[in-house]
Design a protein that fits this description.
10 helices, mainly alpha, globular, two-stranded antiparallel sheet
Length: 236
């Protein structure tokens, strides 16, 4: 690889977005990975994801956060934001730098999901627009949200892992990944496929099949506050 080749950062930008020559990018990435593993080896000497760990929230605050009204408010807002992003993807300007959709997906959502989950718990499980749409479709068609058959236990979290692998490939490798029309199309495709699978396997599909919900729930196990048994400040 030519040392003068530019490597672009993640899912957004053109040739003016954080240009790095290949040697600097590879060296920086290698140092970051090595430092991360060294820090984990030194600091993580025993299991730290015990769901009973953490400082519980005051009961009054926990009751407010667990209130159904707050849950549905969050779900409606999340669904509305998702609809806005999709609308912007197709109806907004075609240029990435002028369109809301790529920035909302790759920056606000993908990057913001990590601190939100670590600090507040499994927020995406609480407000997941796919769960909201699935519940609405089940009510409209008078079908059971439990689905037609259980998701095979042997699959574990492999479906979620496959979705996340595909998304990371999209963000880092796929050509045209920041094109707003492509972003909108992929959001709609992800929604349609997951709703179809949830129709068959039931709402439990989202726990082990939706890559973003599974990722958020995993990160939430590191939340320093609010865990009591299997519950968190934003437990549905």
């Amino acid at each position: 690889m030519d040392p003068g080749t530019h490597v672009l950062a993640h899912g957004l930008g053109g040739r003016t977005d954080l240009p790095l020559d290949a040697v600097a990018a590879i060296a920086g990435g290698g140092i970051a990975v090595a430092a991360s593993f060294a820090a984990l080896t030194a600091a993580w000497t025993r299991p730290r994801l015990n769901p009973d760990a953490g400082r519980p929230l005051p009961p009054a605050l926990a009751r407010v956060l667990d209130a159904p009204a707050l849950t549905w408010t969050g779900r409606v807002l999340a669904l509305a934001c998702t609809a806005l992003v999709v609308a912007a993807a197709f109806a907004g300007p075609p240029a990435t730098e002028d369109n809301l959709a790529p920035w909302a997906l790759y920056v606000t959502f993908w990057v913001g999901l990590v601190p939100a989950s670590v600090l507040l718990g499994p927020v995406w499980r609480r407000v997941n627009p796919l769960r909201t749409l699935h519940a609405a479709l089940c009510r409209a068609t008078r079908t059971s949200p439990a689905g037609r058959r259980a998701l095979p236990a042997r699959l574990g979290y492999l479906p979620a892992a496959a979705w996340l692998t595909g998304f990371v490939w999209l963000e880092l490798v796929a050509p045209g990944r920041s094109d707003p029309r492509l972003v909108g199309t992929l959001i709609l495709a992800y929604t349609a496929v997951n709703l179809a699978l949830a129709w068959w396997f039931g709402r439990d599909w989202f726990t082990r099949g939706d890559g973003f919900e599974a990722y958020s729930s995993l990160l939430a196990r590191m939340s320093p506050i609010g865990r009591r048994g299997t519950r968190t400040p934003v437990h549905p």
